[in-house]
Amino acid sequence: MRYLWTIVWSFLLSFLISYVLSSMAGETLPINQVLVLTVIFAVAVIILGDGVLKEEKDY
């Protein structure tokens, strides 16, 4: 379930970034760029969340 929400939020954030940048440039919204950014954000968050950033457990 957390991977699904990661993908949803990655899509929303990448859509927002692509929309703002394309509207500032006066171009149409490139959906390919949105999908590529979604994959990049999702993979980065999953790798950081599961691999790199682990909680230290105090025993």
How many β-strand stretches? 0
Helix content: over 70%
**Over all CA atoms, what is the radius of gyration?**
15 Å
Average predicted confidence as pLDDT: 88
Characterize the overall form: elongated
- Order of secondary-structure elements: HH
Number of helix segments? Answer: 2
Contiguous runs where pLDDT drops below 50 for at least 5 residues: none
Account of the 3D structure:
The model has no long low-confidence stretch (mean pLDDT 88). The chain has 2 helices and no strands. With 59 residues, it is an all-alpha fold. Helix 1 crosses helix 2. The protein is 78% helix and 0% strand.
Summarize the SSE layout with pairings.
Layout: H1 2-25, H2 31-52
Helix pairs in contact: 1-2
Give a quick summary of the entry:
The protein is mostly helical and 59 residues long.
List keywords for this structure.
mainly alpha, 2 helices, 78% helix
